[in-house]
Design brief:
Radius of gyration: 13 Å
Shape: globular
Number of strands: 9
Oligomer: single chain
Order of helices and strands: EEEHEEEEEHHEH
Largest sheet: 6 strands, antiparallel
Amino acid sequence: MSTLPEGLSYTAEHEWVSLDGDVATVGITAYAAEQLGDVVFVALPEVGSELSLGGVCGEVESHKSVSELFAPLAGVVVEINEALESTPELAGSEPFGQGWLFRVQAAQPDLGHLLDADSYQKHLDELS
């Protein structure tokens, strides 16, 4: 398993969050991408939609399975990665880069409920 990028927060559902002010960028982790295999479709929340913490807000589909996306923060979706409409495989091949999923203006920009890189790595270790 590759080293996790520093400065990100993680969910137990294998999503990452990067906070810039009150806008959070969300994507799937390399572990999630590896488990999914070749990503063939990504369903993202609509810009302007309100997300509730932990609520289902989209899905990532591969040849092997469909995985739901869960909102790591409550807030309003301000941007989606439109590149994923034509090249959904970016979510799997570049999960920490061009494969980001969406950005949400957080109702409460506090990531204290999420895992840091060390805690997420421990979570991954427990899964294997």
